[in-house]
Task: structure prediction
Amino acid sequence: MNENILTAETADSRPRGIDLHTHSTASDGSFAPGMIPQLAWESNLSAVALTDHDTVDGIAEFMAAGAAYPELEAIPGVELSTLYCSREMHFVGLYIDCGSEKLHEFLEMQRAERVERAARINSKLVSLGYPLSETDLTAAGATGTIGRPHFAKALMEKYGFASMAVVFDKLLKHNAPAYVPRKLPPPHAAIEAIHSAGGVAVWAHPVYRQRNERAWAKRIMRKLKPVGLDAVEGYYSMFGPGETALVSELAAMNGLALSGGSDFHGENTPNIRIGCGAGKLYVPPELLKELRHVHSTSERQ
Result:
């Protein structure tokens, strides 16, 4: 009995974190947009943002579901991909207006690029002896924004690969036989698109898998702050204390706010859970104060 009481007290006293980087079936996650608020609430979060890749198609469902949890702040967002110096860079937009015409124009260009890339990946897979039908991809969740995780899941299910990770290693990762590079816009274009929707522009996982991380992050923050970068992701599933300290230091030097999130994709990244990442992630709710301030004082809308 004492153990049960202690467990309940511990659960009730857990600090309520936030998660400002999640994905749903509207892009390459495994849970429907309407499930994200429930998962966030069950994970004891006080705020969650849906930030699907290159689409806002799931936002209406997400926000409607979030209304059932009045103590949970549901934040409309998006994640945009860019390319700079041969490196892919991602930008999360928070507090966006999904009705923005300029944002939709940008997203339409991104979607067209994804469709073209998917066709090229499929052609390579055919030449390698792994043809996939439209039905195969649809069954793998490719009903909206198609990406490599959809191909990986379809290949795993059709050809008996042990896991999606194995598929990536064998066929889809950078320099693998079926890999096709993306044709992406520069970072400032994504920042402009986010600002056109009244959103807060956040550089996602700024030191994730990069060489010379400090020099790279310092250079990019200095370059992008003058063109509107608002914040950087200092808390991330793959970050340890060192990465968080580094990003936090550089953000302070450049007058940038901090954000954070798990990059949750559900079953498509089974080691990453909403709110706590690989198990140790905790994004302080205090970060929302500055992010809200950036949003509320913006004159972009």
Q: What stands out?
A: The first helix runs from residue 2 to 12. The chain is about 40% helix and 15% strand. The beta strands are 18-22, 47-50, 73-84, 87-94, 200-203, 231-236, 257-261. The longest strand covers residues 73-84.
